[in-house]
Amino acid sequence: MHDRLLRSAFISLLAASALTGLVPGTAGAAPATRPGMAECDEPYDARETVLNIGRRLAPGEKMTSPTENTELVMQADGNLVLYALGNPGGYKLPLWNSGTYGNAGAYATMQEDGNFVIYKQGGGPQTGGAIWQTASYGDHNDLKPVAKLESDGNFKVIGRKDDRWGTHWSPLRREKTTKLCAEDTAHQYRYWFDGDWAQSATVWMIIQQDNNVVIYRKSDGKAIWNSATYTTDFHTIDLRVGVDGDMTLRDWFDMDKVAWRTGTAGNPGAYALLQDDGNFVLYKADGGPGKGGALWHSGTWNKI
Tens of pLDDT along 8-31? Predict the structure, then answer.
């Protein structure tokens, strides 16, 4: 948890976040195109869907992100689940859950004290019965507490907790673009952390909390490729294409601790692309779909 808090604080410094009271909210930036975004760096999109103080998600109710890439569902079984949305009416990929299933009738609410809480049926702030919380309550009054789905699909709670880690809570499940470009002196933070995910028209790819990178097909949710790194004892995993063109999965806190690599050094400017044909490909700087120059691929173009 300490590592994730450090990483959360670091991400907060890198990304601007606007707070609104609209459902959904809008501000300034044009919406990103999904699926199939192929930019190296995500465009800034300030839109968000929010749950304000005193509002609740009753059993069966949900919130959908402004870009309709995720939805947060208060299920009838008592579990709060964040899903990545795929084909309309089709399979939805679970990204995170509160682990509170088995509590039929439970509901979630955003409290005045900054805490986001799931209560058993009949429970509440005055009567008790809490079964899960973000523990974001406190005396910090500069921000208005709110639960929200941001345009990158992530679920975030802004509370009143005032400590060294800031005022927010999040499971850190952010959609990235389909293109992962090499680091350079101007872009030193081009990497995906554990919990980050991307989607093409046919597949999702996610860096799971067990440190495994998995590609799931949207038609039925079946895993069609993985990095086989789920047994590694790492703190926080990140996926990046180095300046030299080698794509690695390694410990963010220990740069020399590598779980997996493509072994493609010697190709500066290389980039990785999650394609609509279901393949994840590392290309030379001047390569790409229809042009060739593939250095490595997942071999999943025929599995969708």
Answer: 544 444 443 333 333 434 333 444
Sheet with 191-193: list strands edge to edge: 191-193, 237-241, 247-251, 254-261
The Cα 135–Cα 66 span in angstroms is 26
Q: Do domains 17-37+44-169 and 179-297 have the same CATH topology?
A: yes
Cβ neighbours around 3 below 10 Å, total: 14
The per-residue pLDDT for range 256-292, each reduced to its tens digit, is: 899 999 999 999 999 999 999 999 999 999 999 999 9
Q: What is the pLDDT of residue 11?
A: 47
Beta bridge partners of 130: 119
What topology does CATH give the domain 17-37+44-169? Agglutinin, subunit A (2.90.10)
303: DSSP letter: -
Q: How far is CA 88 from CA 32, 148, 177, 218, 231, in A?
A: 19, 22, 20, 10, 34
CATH 3.10.310.10 fits 179-297, yes or no: no
